Amino acid sequence: MIEAPKGTRDVLPDEIGRWQFVEECARETFERYAFREIRTPIFESTELFARGIGEGSDIVAKEMYTFHDRKGRSVTLRPENTAPVARAFIEHQMHRAPGLQRMYYIGPMFRYERPQKGRMRQFHQIGVEVFGSDHPAVDAETLEMLMAFLGRLGLDDAELALNSVGDPVCRPVYRKALLAYLEPRRDTLCEDCRRRMADNPLRCFDCKVEADRAVMARAPAITDYLCAACREHFGRVTEYLRAYGIRHRLDPRLVRGLDYYRRTSFEVTLQGLGAQNALLGGGRYDGLIKELGGPEVPGFGFAVGEERLVMSLPAAAAVSRGTPEIFIATVDERGVERALLVARALRRVGRRVVFDPLPDKSLRAQLRRANDLQVRFVLILGETEVRERAVTIKRMSDGSQETIAEDRVGARLAEMAGA
Ligand code: HAM
Asked: What backbone phi and psi angles, to 5 degrees, belong to 102?
């Protein structure tokens, strides 16, 4: 038997309702804030990620699905979508449009990671990016939108942790201080952290090794090294959040695994998610567009892991949508053509109708099936009904039945459904 590749999985019709629910809620929420959808390719040139996310990052160093196409070009399945959206922004000269550009996306991402609960090789993100202003109000409003989105999904225990990771003025100073702290402890650190010390020592904060975490917990914090402009920016972000009444925790040791972040960076965690408890992450990336060859345009965004989101939905949100409301039962071949036509007429007026052409099945078996499908009505096309161009409507909630002319079915169902 051929199975889905390791680290991927099928989202089956029984669970798709939850996915559609979060996606619809995302679209509906984001559009209230003037975000519009963008769809970029699933693969991009490898260079985009190497330059955008950073050569030294774990993602670029060891997690990318990279291959050569038939012409020998190196391409990569997107491990994230901020760099691709920034690439599209530059390519389509969106900076020429007046005002801010706000975009959102929903789609698959690919990282070669060791699969475990909530960690996949193909996973999905719901993300947003705002280009064109470094005003702290952009950070605050986008965070407010995010918390409103999570609130609408019923995730009230989501915890927002926030930090500023500085900018090219203050980060080098901090980096030096951090290295001065780490050097004497080098031998106690894991191999990954020793590599991180050379590439980007801030990443040591991401280390999952217990002993290293203890070392990092006592390391100097970037917040003590921020330059005046970064401190001012971060102060304003948190002021706005307070004005909104949005609960948040300042975490001076929160750094993220991608190189493009500047100033604000954040994560939202949920208790129920276990070891992979980051539901989402994001931040400001004011240097990215320039780094990718575009103009000096600041940016801010976040991406939510959709698998983790769907997994965390409260049970009450176990929505089932698109399920049929009407089942058509026939007793012999003559009923089939009528069934096809009645079903079409009802679908034309927006009804969700199921007709399973298995006329050998007894009426009783068909009613059982209708019951399993939890439809509201069954239309029975028996011998008499077919002969008289009539239909019997059975209301499943109370078992009541009535027989009416076929051309009145739509109107009668509308009355009954409204009642
Ligand atoms: P990230 O933190 O790498 O950020 O990913 C964001 C979220 O994607 C994570 O918090 C997690 O929920 C989900 N995620 C990441 N890897 C996996 C995986 N292997 N399996 C399941 N879920 C996963 C970014 O990707 C940035 N582009 C976010 C951003 C947008 N920053 C600014 N704008």
From this structure: -120, 125
Q: Is the CB of 85 under 6 A from ligand 1?
A: no
Q: Is residue 178 part of a domain?
A: no
Is residue 283 lining ligand 1, measured as CB closer than 6 Å? Answer: yes
Q: How far apart are CA 247 and CA 237, in angstroms?
A: 13
Same-domain check for residues 359 and 241: no
Ligand 1 atom closest to Cα of 125?
8
Q: Ligand 1 test: best mutation among 102, 104, 109, most atoms within 8 Å of CB?
A: 109
**What is the CA(49)–ligand 1 centre distance, in A?**
14
Give the domain extent around 407: 326-417
Note the pLDDT tens digit of each residue in 129-161. 999 999 999 999 999 999 999 999 999 889 999
CB of 123 sitting under 6 A from ligand 1 = yes
Identify whether residues 247 and 278 lie together within a single domain: yes
Q: Is 193 helix (H, G, I), strand (E, B) or coil?
A: helix
Residue 326: how many CB atoms within 10 A of its CB?
24
Of 264, 294, 317, which closes a domain? 317
Most confident of 11-20, 38-47, 263-272: 38-47
Over residues 47-91, the pLDDT tens digits come to 999 999 988 788 998 999 999 999 999 999 999 999 999 999 999
Q: DSSP letters of 141-190?
A: HHHHHHHHHHHHTT-TT-EEEEEE---TTTHHHHHHHHHHHHGGGGGGS-
Q: Tell which atom from ligand 1 comes closest to the C-alpha of 256.
A: 2
| 199 CB near ligand 1 (under 6 Å) | no
* Residue 302 Cβ contacting ligand 1 at under 6 Å: yes
Q: Which atom of ligand 1 is nearest to the CA of 267?
A: 10
pLDDT band at residue 208 under the 50/70/90 scheme: confident
Q: Do 285 and 166 touch, CB atoms closer than 8 A?
A: no
